[in-house]
Amino acid sequence: MIGGQHILMARAALRWSIEDLAKVSGVGVRTIKRFEAVDEITSGNLSTIQKLKTALETAGIEFIGTPTDRPGIRIGRSKPNDYPHT
User: Fold this and answer.
1) Which of 40, 59, 65, 72 is the most interior residue, by most CB within 10 Å?
2) Rg of the chain taking only CA atoms, in angstroms
3) Residue 5 is inside which H or E element, if any?
4) pLDDT in tens, 1-34
5) Backbone dihedral region for residue 60 (phi beyond 0: left; psi -120 to 50: alpha; all else: beta)
6) What CA–CA distance (Å, rounded) separates 16 from 13?
7) pTM tops 0.90
């Protein structure tokens, strides 16, 4: 499971705006803002979280830790087409 800090760190590492992540993941901007504002995201939102996680992992992000235990990311390889800016 990933949390709001994970999403925020991943976006920063990729230099993606919330709008960029929304475009790539298909998740609304307001939903992403709401998720980033909390550490733990409830399990009722698993399908939405999976969309965000998949979009960020496809762009080269690896999530480490948990929302409550040393949340972090690693930046791996990504394909240029995974970035909404190009």
Assistant:
1) 59
2) 12
3) helix 4-14
4) 888 999 999 999 999 999 999 999 999 999 999 9
5) left
6) 8
7) no
Half-sphere exposure of 86 (CA within 13 A, CB side): 9
Rounded to 10 deg, the angle between the 18-25 and 4-14 helix axes is 100
Residue 59 sits at φ, ψ, to 5 deg, of: -85, 0
Domains of the chain and any CATH numbers:
4-81 (1.10.260.40)
Closest CA to 83 of 39, 25, 20, 38: 20
Q: How many residues does the chain have?
A: 86
CA 4 to chain centroid = 8
The two beta strands, 61-66 and 69-75, are antiparallel
Number of H helices, E strands in the chain: 4, 2
